[in-house]
Predict the structure.
Amino acid sequence: MKAKHWYDYLWVYAIIYFALGFFNILFAWLGMIDFLLPLLLAIFGGNKFFCNHLCGRGQLFSKLGTDLKCSRCKPTPRWMSSKWFRYAFLLFFLTMFGNMVFQTYLVAAGATSLRQAIKLFWTFRVPWGWTYTAGTVADWMAQFSFGFYSLMLTSLLLGLIVMVLYMPRTWCAFCPMGTMTQGICKLKNKE
Ligand code: SF4
């Protein structure tokens, strides 16, 4: 049997991260680790160590889908892993990320006020005010938390939906972080 490493349990961290967002939205900032670390490892290491070993979300899909049999384990539709879909989804995702940063800027500049809500699937606004006490930090920091947690939770839910419908880690076929790190690694290896 393969020896277990500390990083084999990062799926627990993924659960804790999302749970913390139900109590205090400022913990959403921790998600920046999942955003920056894969990019840094790809840029400086030229590898997908993050995807292969450090991604708690991917591990969570494996746990739920394979170990707990929450997945139908049907083949992932080919279009989901096609180049055009992966890059189109990445573009969409980055646009939404950019919009979230812009909303944060507007709050920082005093052009709009803090909205204590999250937006699921970029559409459905859900009140989330109990997770934040006004004035704890600068409004823009809180706004970023609400926006970033919205992105993280939306991508988790999308991942869970495709996990149930198809293979446990179908999300990885078009995950924006996976697409970006793969692109970076390809460029690095060409060098
Ligand atoms: S593709 Fe995305 S979800 Fe899958 S292991 Fe990589 S970063 Fe995690």
